[in-house]
Amino acid sequence: MKVILLQDVKKVGRKGEVVEVSDGYASNFLFPRKLAVKKTDKSTEILEQQKEDARLLLEKQKEEALKIKEQLANIVVEFTLKSNNGKVFGSVSFKQVEEELKAKHNIVIDKRKITTKGPVDQLGYTKLNIELFKGVIGIITVHVKEEK
Predict the structure, then answer these.
(1) Which CATH number do you get for residue 100?
(2) Which pTM was predicted?
(3) pLDDT in tens, 11-62
(4) Cβ contact 148:84 at 8 Å
(5) Hey, which of 29, 30, 110, 147 would disulfide with 80, CB 3.0 to 4.6 Å?
(6) Whole domain around residue 116: which residue ranges?
(7) Mind listing the pLDDT tens digit for each residue in 109-120?
């Protein structure tokens, strides 16, 4: 019997695939657990529509990420830290950068998406890479000034 999988099933296939399984396995395991539906013209049409919707959603998310990338290129986030002879006491965490972007520029990013290693712990300008979407990397400039 041909079925369309609604979820990933070990040793059978992945979500959205059309696979051939035995009648008993389908009616006794897959259908009661809502892991699959029987392949018909209507179910195939619904599957194709879902794939198209998912593709459009990904396209929209990528466009939004590209817009945010352009905005981030023009932004400099400023912080002040205590220092003595060029040695900084403390650092600027990614959480602080995330909060500053949200508060002053109304841009929401996830601090876990910042791919640069370690917090900003030196005076001057530092560039941070942010993975906004798969393959879309935004760069933000963080300026750390000496507190007087």
Answers:
(1) 3.10.430.100
(2) 0.69
(3) 999 998 999 999 999 999 999 999 999 999 999 999 899 999 999 999 999 9
(4) no
(5) 147
(6) 64-146
(7) 888 988 888 888
